[in-house]
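My main concern about presentation is that the manuscript never shows what a single data entry looks like. The format is easy to grasp once an entry is in front of the reader. For illustration, here is how one protein appears when written out as sequence plus structure tokens:
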Amino acid sequence: MDPEDLELHVLEFRDEGATPLQIRPYTAALRSQKPVLVIDNGSWNCRAGWSTDPRPPFSFYNLLAKQKGKKGEQEPIIIGGDLGQIENLRWMLRSPFDTNVVVQFGYQEVLLDYVLANMGLGEETHLDMPVLMTEPLLNLAYSRKQMNELLFECYAFPHVAYGVDGAFSYFKNMNRGLPDGLVISVGNICTHLIPVLNNQMDFGHCRRIDLGGLNMTLYLQRLLQLKYPVHASSITITRMEEILQGYCYYAANYSDALAKWRNRDFYKASALYFQLPFQAPTGPVATQEEIDARREENAQRLRDMNRKRYLEKLAQDEDRLEKLLTLQDLVKQKGQKSTKDDLKALGVRSVEGLQAEIQTLTGTITRTKERLERKAIEVPKESAAETVVDPETLKGWVIDLKEQRHRLVDQRSARKQRKTDLGKRRSYASQQRMKIITHLASGQNKVI
């Protein structure tokens, strides 16, 4: 695609912020028309207006956010258009709905107060206009009863009517010559299939599918986050909702639509590109040599820290070994009973434990020194290919490695044999083990 053509298809997200309360005055001329207050009480968006309006003048998220205030003060509440980007408040969001049924009527009352304030009815003491409100298909009797109490007793509306938004749309746009039809009402949480027979809804054959606009939005968000994992945090629900509602469509023929999009020319002419918010770097850009030098510096710092850690551990082990060797000489001179307190001070239980710890520390110190020597003569990767190795040196290095391997194999075989001997009751190792356990159980200090 040419760059000029690409520019025509690049779109930017609106990223609309918070919309302040816009009060529409309830004038005397509007009062004289005796309009009906229409509230489309959806589980995601609420739309409100007068029956004389061609389109609803107010539309906002049917959600509220409760912020934590100071102790003893009333919690501040953010409603509707004041929410702005809901991703910033997603942990504080509250909804009066459970799926698509109103269950939290305290939240519903707060949202209705917001609607009436936008409609210029916040200061009205007597609401004498009828109300038309949408509700889910086959709404629960308890939910409708609570809504009636709220509208009649709290707001004192004289008349209230309920209806299903999908049925209103069907009878508004229906073909008068066709008495039968099928309503597919796609909501935020679920989709309802409503058959219409002889201009009447057949409630006995209605079906509900737990798939709605929110599921489509979340699915689109997950697809794009998997495709562009670097920008996962920028692919938000609000932006996906803008793409879904503004640029997606239902294909009348799915197979034909797929065939069209396989055509490269159709793809170039119809594809849309969305530009995520981007801020170009303002400072100087580092060259590749500077980046490599910085990486090498960080690597060298890590190597120095590792070497320092080995040296500190080596010093501790050598100090411990020196104390143990001194104690061993003392035990040989005075005996175990006289040096009992000295053994306890160094955390050694017996002479055998003292000898075992000396042997272990000696091996540890030897391995640590060998590791430090290898680190000191390690050849950098850049010059490894250019270094010429003496054949005699290489041969000696191979012989040392083989000797180390033989020692490790012998030690492993010895440990395995000892484990096997301990499992046999009549072996020498097993008899020695039982003898030690017997002496420890008898409470005697001398261990044979």
